[in-house]
UniProtKB/TrEMBL annotation:
UniProt source species: Protaetiibacter larvae
Pathway(s) of this molecule: Cofactor biosynthesis; riboflavin biosynthesis; 5-amino-6-(D-ribitylamino)uracil from GTP: step 2/4; Cofactor biosynthesis; riboflavin biosynthesis; 5-amino-6-(D-ribitylamino)uracil from GTP: step 3/4
Note describing how the cofactor binds: Binds 1 zinc ion.
This protein's name: Riboflavin biosynthesis protein RibD
Lineage summary: Bacteria, Bacillati, Actinomycetota, Actinomycetes, Micrococcales
InterPro entries tied to this protein: CMP_dCMP_dom, Cytidine_deaminase-like, DHFR-like_dom_sf, Eubact_RibD, RibDG_C, Riboflavin_Biosynth_HTPR
Residues of the CMP/dCMP-type deaminase domain: 1-114
Lineage: superkingdom: Bacteria
Length: 329
């Protein structure tokens, strides 16, 4: 299962489907084939591993996620394993998908021995973002901002480019490229005219481009840079955050990276829709009232939103603090 998990990590983070790995073992426990999922529309891990063998009869398939039981862009993995004559299937985590679940039951019905729950905690931690998104029917939301040490996101005149240095900005591009969509408020589009593309060191476009989503009732100007985004543009024309996230879920968007501004970030936090924070802190002071986060509707310290810091990275002169809400806080 650990080898299957290593293989799973080779698949893409983005896209509607999870990262899944599979190894096929012979009766002596030796690995005879390996496979992993390379993204929506391509073979699932089990089918990828099976495709490397002429004869898989009597083998054991070890797979990180319960084999799916539905026909999407590819056929059900349960049927592929049965047709190949696999004798035993060992998996870690049950499939939470409402359409795709039921693979284990289907395999048992066909006489295949099935063992679930192997290394389940490890695999669940690895798939945490995807599992959470699928279970809630809304994407995982990372709220990012760059602020001064005194918590300001812009100067008095509204300028905020660039609070942080190049290493921090490069990390932002990596985080964009690891997301399915970038959410931004119309205020930021009007103030900064950001391109919202994921770019490398030399300014070149990275292979994966998340789709920009502009939140707010006002329209995006015809001349806005984001209109030239290679992944297209979603203009919501609305402030209804829950409805927007449901709509993104329906498009197979699992990871959303929120790039502000303060009004949109605060609204998401106040609504309990922020799953993770990526806070870039620069050793700069601006003072004034342009705070990174506005009113969250918290009247007293006892009601403060408590977070757990999951990592701290130094990027040039800046810090990236990553944190998640403490459940129930
Ligand atoms: N330091 C950073 O990390 C960072 C990042 C981004 C922006 N900024 C700075 O932030 C400033 C812009 O801030 P901002 O707060 O005006 O921008 P914003 O959050 O991007 O946009 C605010 C607008 O979004 C709409 N909106 C979307 N969801 C909403 C909701 N749930 N509730 C209310 N309104 C909602 C409203 O427009 P409608 O009336 O059209 O609905 C609102 O006026 C600029 O100075 C920019 O440079 C800094």
């Amino acid at each position: 299962m650990r080898r299957a998990l290593e293989l799973a990590a080779r698949g893409p983070l983005t896209g509607g489907n999870p990262q899944v790995g599979c190894v096929l073992l012979d009766a002596g426990g030796a690995v005879v084939a390996e496979g992993w999922h390379r993204g929506a529309g391509t073979a699932h891990a089990e089918v990828d591993a099976l495709s490397r063998l002429e004869d898989a009869r009597g083998l054991t398939a070890v797979v990180t996620l319960e084999p799916c039981n539905h026909t999407g862009r590819t056929g059900p993995c349960s049927e592929a394993l049965i047709a190949a004559g696999v004798a035993r299937v060992v998996y870690a985590v049950s499939d939470p998908g409402h359409e795709s679940a039921g693979g284990a039951a289907r395999l048992r019905e066909a006489g295949v021995e099935v063992i679930g729950g192997v290394l389940a905690d490890e695999v669940r931690a690895f798939l945490h973002v995807w599992l959470t998104a699928v279970a809630r029917h809304r994407p995982w939301v990372t709220v990012k901002w760059a602020s001064t040490l005194d918590g300001r996101a812009a100067a008095a005149d509204g300028t905020s480019q660039w609070i942080t240095g190049t290493a921090a900005r490069q990390r932002v591009h990596e985080q964009r490229a690891a997301s399915d969509a970038i959410l931004v408020g119309i205020g930021t589009v009007l103030a900064d005219d950001p391109a919202l593309t994921a770019r490398g060191d030399g300014g070149e476009l990275l292979a994966h481009q998340p789709i920009p989503v502009v939140v707010g009732e006002r329209g995006v100007p015809a001349t806005a840079a984001v209109r030239a985004h290679p992944a297209g543009l979603i203009e919501t024309g609305s402030r209804d955050l829950e409805a927007i996230l449901r709509e993104l879920d329906a498009r197979g968007i699992r990871r959303v990276y929120v790039e502000g501004g303060p009004t949109l970030a605060s609204a998401l936090i106040a609504a309990g829709l922020a799953d993770e924070y990526a806070v870039y802190l620069a050793p700069v002071l601006l003072g004034g009232d342009r705070l990174a986060v506005g009113d969250l509707g918290i009247p007293t310290i006892a009601d403060a939103r408590r977070l757990r810091i999951t990592s701290i990275e130094q990027l040039g002169d800046d810090l990236l603090v990553t944190a998640r809400p403490i459940q129930g806080s």
